[in-house]
Design goal:
two-stranded antiparallel ribbon, extended
């Protein structure tokens, strides 16, 4: 029954090097450091997955006319600098 607008998933292109990330504000990046290149409209029960690197800047657009709460789940896997997720092996 959610008829509000917004809540779209936006993907951004970095404009130069990212000079600052505000971790306390949810890892925000200054909006002059990127431009929006794609936007996926919100639909219920949707799923988005991507490799989240330092250059994987994304956001969610503001909602307008919201009368119902939406639930989102954000799963983040982080590694310390010298650890790697995959082991490099030669091709056979």
């Amino acid at each position: 029954e959610d008829t509000s607008a917004g809540g779209n998933f936006s993907v951004h292109e970095i404009m130069g090097d990212i000079s600052e990330i505000d971790i306390e504000a949810g890892r925000e990046v200054v909006d002059t450091q990127f431009r929006t290149v794609a936007e996926v409209p919100y639909t219920q029960n949707s799923y988005a997955m991507f490799l989240n690197t330092i250059n994987s800047v994304h956001s969610v657009t503001p909602r307008v006319g919201a009368t119902h709460e939406r639930v989102s789940i954000n799963i983040i896997g982080e590694f310390v600098k010298d650890n790697f997720m995959w082991e490099e092996r030669p091709l056979e």
